[in-house]
Amino acid sequence: MRDRVRRLAALRRWHRRLGLPLALWLAWLAASGVALNHGAALGLDRRPLPSWLAESLYGVAVEPPQGVALDELWLGVAGETLFAGERPVDRCSRLVGAARSGELVYAACPEAVYALTRNGELVEAMTAGLPGVVASFGRCGELPCLVSGDTTFALDPVRLVWVPHPASPQVAPAAPPPPDLLPRLAARAVPAEFTWERLVRDLHSGALFGLGPWLADLFAVGLVLLSALGFALWRLSSPRGRRA
């Protein structure tokens, strides 16, 4: 009798020790699975990870955004998006240059030039009519101008066409974003593939820690052991087990 009681106590103790972590693990798998099934509706596929989290978990080197400061307006690219201050303008692989001309501000990407108000509101996106890929952008006198190939072109303010110009553009120096904008822009500088959806998926599968299928194997073995302990408890607690 005493031997059966000792065995029951030991089995219950190990059943609890194994059951609690497996229950928590199963709860995480269920919750993360539901989140992944509804990732698009929850916006997980569109929300980038914070830069510190992408750096610490994935080793992503997130460089602080660089751009151009024109008086009170900062223009730059973060996460392949052109920003005028905190206002997103359009997709842009990199900022080639920016210049102020008259009442407008111009920002150039390799394949587009954007005319903006001094507050950063988009007035016009000039893609058609460019002489080619924009290699450099600045100001020639009072006119916005760009370099494409080996030729400088200035914007004709009347016809709104780019015409050859003899001078080279005066390029505004690079400048970091204002301190109040830096945290928000740094988050956008994280590569697009590092989203909350990827983090949840990698935690769900164990890929983040390099465990992969071993994690599933460990979980399966734990369930088998938990079931065996439960069966042993049932057997010892049954009338036949009591007689034994």
Which strand order do you get reading across the main beta sheet? 4-3-2-1-13
In the CATH hierarchy, what is the architecture of the largest domain at level 2?
A: Beta Barrel
Which radius of gyration do the C-alpha atoms yield?
A: 31 Å
Estimate the global geometry from the Cα principal axes.
rod-shaped
Q: So what's the CATH class of the largest domain?
A: Mainly Beta
Q: How far apart are the termini?
A: 8 Å
Mean pLDDT figure: 83
Give me the count of strands: 13
Descriptive overview:
The chain is α+β, with helices and mostly antiparallel strands and 244 residues long. It folds into 2 domains: 2-47 and 195-243; 67-188, Lipocalin (Beta Barrel), CATH 2.40.128. The longest helix has 36 residues, at 2-37. Helix 1 (2-37) packs antiparallel against helix 6. The N and C termini lie close together (8 Å). Helices cover 39% and strands 25% of the residues.
Q: What key attributes describe this structure?
A:
Lipocalin, 5-stranded antiparallel beta sheet, single chain, alpha+beta, 2 domains
Provide a short characterization of the protein structure:
By secondary structure, this protein is of the alpha+beta class.
Give the SSE layout.
Elements: H1 2-37, H2 39-42, H3 51-58, E1 67-70, E2 73-78, E3 81-84, E4 87-91, E5 97-101, E6 104-109, E7 112-116, E8 122-126, E9 136-140, E10 143-148, E11 151-155, E12 162-164, E13 174-175, H4 182-188, H5 196-205, H6 213-237, H7 239-243
Antiparallel strand pairs: 1-2, 1-13, 2-3, 3-4, 5-6, 6-7, 7-8, 9-10, 10-11, 11-12
